[in-house]
Amino acid sequence: MRAVIQRVSKASVTIAGHEHSRIDHGLLVLLGVEDCDESVDIDWLVGKIAQMRLFADDLGKMNRNVVDVGGSILVVSQFTLHASTKKGNRPSFLRAAHPQKAEPFYEQFCTQLASVATVSVHHGVFGADMQVALCNDGPVTILLDSRDRE
């Protein structure tokens, strides 16, 4: 699984001209499920995101997590995170999980994140054509990959 985590002052998802989800201060998580992912990948990623210290403390150091600052999380499915650009100019998405696998993993990720992080977790609609708006705070953007657990 891959996730792009962005610290935001606000973020929203609009579908067919109607706002579906919105958060203020918190994290926007773009989540991509790979065909070889397993439930342990969800566990690892949820644990990292819930505890990742991306918010400033009183000294201006990034020492606080989303729970500490009373933030929210917005999760958006993003199969394009598994694009391969190795050959040619058109990305290949062969490594991205098929919707039959990816959607349950996405739903499990959102449910587990809400349980572990104990903050409000909002989400887009899996497979929908979504417009995502955000104001990246910092900017702070982190890439996590459960296959490369740095």
Explain the layout of strands and helices:
Elements: E1 2-15, E2 18-23, E3 26-32, H1 39-51, E4 55-56, E5 62-64, E6 72-77, H2 99-117, E7 121-123, E8 130-145
Parallel strand pairs: 3-6, 6-7
Antiparallel strand pairs: 1-2, 1-3, 1-8, 4-5
Keywords for this entry:
150 residues; two-stranded antiparallel ribbon; D-tyrosyl-trna(Tyr) Deacylase, Chain: A; six-stranded mixed β-sheet; 38% strand; 2 helices; alpha/beta
Descriptive notes:
The chain has one domain (2-145): D-tyrosyl-tRNA(Tyr) deacylase (D-tyrosyl-trna(Tyr) Deacylase, Chain: A, 3-Layer(bba) Sandwich), CATH 3.50.80.10. Strand 1 (2-15) and strand 2 (18-23) form a beta hairpin. The model has no long low-confidence stretch (mean pLDDT 95). The chain is α/β, with parallel strands linked by helices. Strands 1, 2, 3, 6, 7 and 8 form a six-stranded mixed β-sheet that branches. Helix 1 packs parallel to helix 2 (99-117). The longest helix has 19 residues, at 99-117. It contains two helices and eight strands.
Structure at a glance:
By secondary structure, the protein is α/β, with parallel strands linked by helices.
Give, in order, the helices and strands.
EEEHEEEHEE
Mean pLDDT: 95
Low-confidence stretches: none
Distance between the termini: 14 Å
Question: How many domains make up the coordinates?
Answer: 1
CATH-assigned fold name: D-tyrosyl-trna(Tyr) Deacylase, Chain: A
Number of helices, counting only DSSP H or I runs of 4 residues or more: 2
Helix/sheet category: alpha/beta
User: Radius of gyration over alpha carbons?
Assistant: 15 Å
Q: What is the overall shape?
A: globular
How many beta-strand segments? 8
CATH class division: Alpha Beta
Largest sheet: 6 strands, mixed
CATH architectural category: 3-Layer(bba) Sandwich
Percent of residues in helices comes to 10-25%
